[in-house]
Design a protein that fits this description.
Membrane topology: Multi-pass membrane protein
Family: Belongs to the CTL (choline transporter-like) family.
Radius of gyration: 28 Å
Number of strands: 11
GO molecular function, one term: transmembrane transporter activity
Main location: membrane
Strand order of the largest sheet: 1-10-11
Order of helices and strands: EEEEEEEEEEEHHHHHHHHHHHHHHHHH
Helix content: 55-70%
Largest sheet: 3 strands, antiparallel
Number of helices: 17
Shape: globular
Protein name: Choline transporter-like protein
Number of domains: 2
Distance between the termini: 54 Å
């Protein structure tokens, strides 16, 4: 049943209400409410609206504004000290005076949302991360200082006398090699940001096509250096990379389209690039201490096995720390971009003041625990999902292998529901915990069909290839110098230097990835937001979404038909 209500034709605040008596029923389905203006514009209220109690007698209201000083309600938004109003001239419905922030819009209409309440989330993981930093920092200081300018300065070798070797070194000998790695990684990251507008697409294409060759060349060099284990590892990596690129080659045009749109968005907000520069400097400061300890481990007299175990532990710590900083940038940048898309531009009058500083404050305080938690698992699960999808698309009619891969695929899909990168946009916007944010984002994609588009897009994989290539260049630079000076340590220094380069380049790449996630979340929330920002890109996304949904529908029909034929065959055989 549909109903209409005429509002006063005046500019300014107008009172209206849509109230229900819930005394006789436990729940009421909230109707869809749209505002139709004389100029033809239609402004729907946000989805998932709920009734808010405004009286003690069982009255719940969908829109209510009794007095200018009381609680004013529209849909799922409430404001204190305002009145529900509309502006016929500008086709806007909202609060008067304008004290609301945006969350969802119609066709050019004003969006409606309240500033979300912020509470500390995932505090346990925040504590774990901080304790980990303190313990690792102390260990790095001790390991580096023990061989700084003097062997066994802290007399640690007495505890490891069973594992001692004759070869001994000094921390500063290898610290310089890591300094080179830090410099190369920073240069690559800053170069990426500097050429973001003019050469970003070309650099990403080069990363996709050259990574396989680079891995193969390094594999040959490692075999020549008689490092057979690492040579085989890099050769396998080159083969897997080649197979993956073949499996996604038909998706690359759409992926590059999305990345170009993301670069366009980033370039329109120069301040977010300054955030990336700042966090790269913070990461460099931590790497000064980390490389000091790692150099002490490489220089130690412990056997190769002991040194490798220590370096693996330190590398896991560096990976987590780097992922936390990358995802902190992700939250800051995506929160800013979400606001820009919702409000219709950086200079929109409804844009909240100091948006970037607010995003920064939330990211490093109330939401930092969620970032630490998500950073532990998201990258691994996402990479595993890409690989399984690539293998699954090339299996063909091998039903046995397809069954095994499908089992792994559905297992990973279950994990993706609770660990995905789109959670960081929800964290930035609403301040929810990580798992809650990840689940909400994934349910939003599945309920709107945008998940088909997200699954088809390979922008995250392309950016990861650029990150890996940057790490390989960094590791190669440090490895060549190590080969000249200390040939027996080339793999140790080169592999850890590669990780340093990946972290630094990743801090530059995450700016574009944040824009991609913001685009998809906004498209799922309200496609008209993207159309208002870039109509041509909106049309291309909508066309691709239509194609992907048709493709899935046709595949489902094929599977159903095949299943019916199998059942029919089984029934006719006994006869």
């Amino acid at each position: 049943m549909k109903g209409t209500k005429d509002l006063p034709v005046t500019k300014g605040a107008a009172l209206f209400d849509a109230c229900y008596d819930l005394s006789s029923r436990k729940s009421v389905e909230v109707p869809t409410v749209s505002f139709h203006f004389a100029d033809g514009k239609v402004l729907p209220l946000p989805a998932k609206n709920f009734l808010i109690p405004v009286d003690s007698d069982g009255t719940f209201c969908f829109a209510f504004a009794p007095t200018p000083s009381s609680l004013s309600i529209i849909g799922n938004v409430q404001q204190q000290g305002t009145r529900v109003g509309f502006d016929l001239l500008n086709s806007v419905v909202g609060f008067s005076p304008n004290q609301f922030s945006s969350r969802r819009s119609g066709d050019g209409g004003q969006a409606l949302a309240a500033e979300p309440s912020r509470r500390w989330r995932d505090i346990f993981w925040l504590g774990v991360f901080l304790i980990h930093l303190i313990l690792v920092g102390c260990a790095l200081t001790v390991l580096g200082a023990n061989r700084f300018k003097k062997t066994d300065r802290l007399n640690i070798d007495r505890y490891t006398h069973r594992f001692l070797e004759n070869e001994r070194g000094l921390t500063e000998n290898y610290w310089l090699l890591y300094a080179l790695a830090g410099g190369v990684g920073t240069l690559l990251g800053w170069t990426w940001l500097f050429f973001l507008r003019s050469q970003a697409t070309h650099m990403m294409k080069v990363a996709v096509h050259i990574l396989t060759t680079y891995l193969a060349v390094i594999s040959v060099l490692l075999f020549w250096m008689e490092q057979f284990f690492w040579g085989v590892a890099f050769a396998i990596g080159a083969v897997l990379q080649f197979m993956y690129v073949l499996s996604i080659v038909d998706r690359l045009p759409f992926t590059m389209l999305v990345l170009q749109a993301a670069v366009k968005m980033v370039w329109s907000l120069r301040e977010v690039m300054r955030v990336a520069y700042a966090f790269m400097l913070i990461m460099l400061l931590w790497m000064v201490l980390w490389s000091f300890g790692a150099a002490g481990v490489v220089a130690s007299s412990i056997g190769d096995g002991g040194r490798w175990w220590l370096l693996v532990v330190l590398s896991i710590s560096l990976f987590w720390t780097g992922a936390v900083l990358c995802n902190t940038v992700h939250v800051i940048v995506s929160g800013m971009m979400f606001l820009v898309l919702i409000h219709g531009g950086r200079e929109a009058p409804s844009m909240p003041p100091n948006s970037l500083m607010k995003s920064l404050r939330y990211a490093v305080t109330t939401s930092f625990g969620s970032i630490c938690y998500g950073s532990l698992f998201t990258a691994f699960i996402r990479t595993l999902r890409w690989k399984i999808r690539g293998v699954r698309s090339k299996i063909g009619n091998n039903e046995c292998l397809l069954c095994c891969v499908d089992f792994l695929f559905h297992l990973v899909e279950t994990l993706v529901r609770f660990f995905n990168k789109y959670a960081y946009v929800q964290i930035a916007v609403s301040g929810k915990g990580f798992n809650h944010s990840a689940r909400d984002a994934w349910e939003l994609f599945q309920s709107t069909g945008v998940e088909a588009l997200v699954a088809y897009d390979c922008s995250g994989a392309v950016l990861l290839m650029g990150t890996v290539l940057g790490g390989l260049i960094t590791g190669t630079s440090a490895g060549i110098w190590t080969w000249i000076k200390y040939r027996d340590r080339v793999v140790m220094v080169g592999s850890t230097a590669m990780l340093m380069g990946m972290v630094l380049v990743g801090l530059a790449m995450v700016v574009v990835e944040s824009a991609v996630t913001s685009i998809y979340i906004c498209y799922a929330e309200d496609p008209l937001l993207i159309r208002r920002w870039d109509a041509e890109f909106f049309n291309q996304m909508s066309e691709m979404l239509h194609q992907r949904l048709q493709h899935r529908s046709s595949r489902a029909r094929e599977v159903l038909t095949h299943h019916h034929l199998d059942n029919h065959t089984q029934e006719t055989l006994p006869a």
